[in-house]
Design goal:
Number of strands: 3
Mean pLDDT: 81
Shape: elongated
Number of helices: 3
Radius of gyration: 26 Å
Order of helices and strands: HEHHEE
Distance between the termini: 69 Å
Low-confidence stretches: none
Oligomer: single chain
Structural class: alpha+beta
Strand content: 15-25%
Largest sheet: 3 strands, antiparallel
Helix content: 25-40%
Strand order of the largest sheet: 1-3-2
Length: about 100
């Protein structure tokens, strides 16, 4: 009883070594972990209260569509924004518009 383990003192109050163990990870491969993380991210994104629409259009049409979207769904009322965009190899623009869903 020199170390105090039997009395619950010492070693952070553990009564015996190994009392608290970390459970084994529920995934087996890195792909399983990646799939789990992607599913969580998708679930969180789906539950955030925003509606999203993704468009792929030539540059000028993309500008017109974004302007029309922001006119229809006022940023002041719906928190509308261009969430993300990228230029594709063919010169088209892929973009995602986001707005609050609660105002529907």
């Amino acid at each position: 009883m020199c170390s105090g383990e039997a009395t619950g003192r010492g070693r952070g109050g553990l009564r015996y070594p190994g009392q608290y163990r970390v459970p084994a990870m529920p995934y087996r491969t890195p792909k399983d972990l990646a799939d789990r993380m992607a599913a969580r991210r998708a679930q969180a994104k789906a539950d955030d209260g925003f509606a999203r629409e993704t468009f792929t259009l030539p540059r000028e049409q993309a500008r017109e569509r974004a302007r029309a979207y922001l006119t229809r769904w006022s940023p002041a009322a719906y928190m509308s924004v261009v969430e993300s965009w990228r230029e594709l190899p063919g010169g088209e623009i892929e973009f995602t518009m986001r707005r609050l869903r609660s105002a529907d």
